[in-house]
Amino acid sequence: MLDDDAGAEGGMYCICRCKIVEGTATMDENVSLDPWKIETGFTLSCQALTDTARLVLDFDAQ
Q1: CA 42 to CA 21: how far, in whole Å?
Q2: Partner residues linked to 22 by β-bridges
Q3: Strand arrangement, sheet containing 17-22
Q4: Which residues contact 2 (CB under 8 A, 6 or more apart)?
Q5: How many beta carbons lie within 10 A of that of residue 48, not counting itself?
């Protein structure tokens, strides 16, 4: 567990970074992902608000 739980929950450390494989989502807040990462389909799962009925995420994507 990280010392700063609020930072972890807010996506600061990017430990919840994943790639959207199916569906779409909008991040409530982004404090750590570069714009090009978002454009290639990455999101922070702790900040993702699903826009579709089904959302499939890949946590192993690089």
Answers
A1: 9
A2: 56
A3: 42-44, 17-22, 56-58
A4: 8, 13, 15
A5: 20
pLDDT at 8: 53
Tell me: the pLDDT tens digits for 4-62? 444 455 556 678 999 999 999 999 888 889 999 999 999 999 999 999 999 999 999 98
Residue 34: CB atoms within 10 A of its CB come to 10
Domain 5-58 in CATH 3.10.20.30? The answer is yes
- Whole-model pTM? 0.78
Give the helix, strand, coil percentages of the chain, each rounded to 5.
Answer: 15, 30, 55
Amino acid at 34: D
Rg (CA), the chain: 11
pLDDT in the model for residue 15: 87
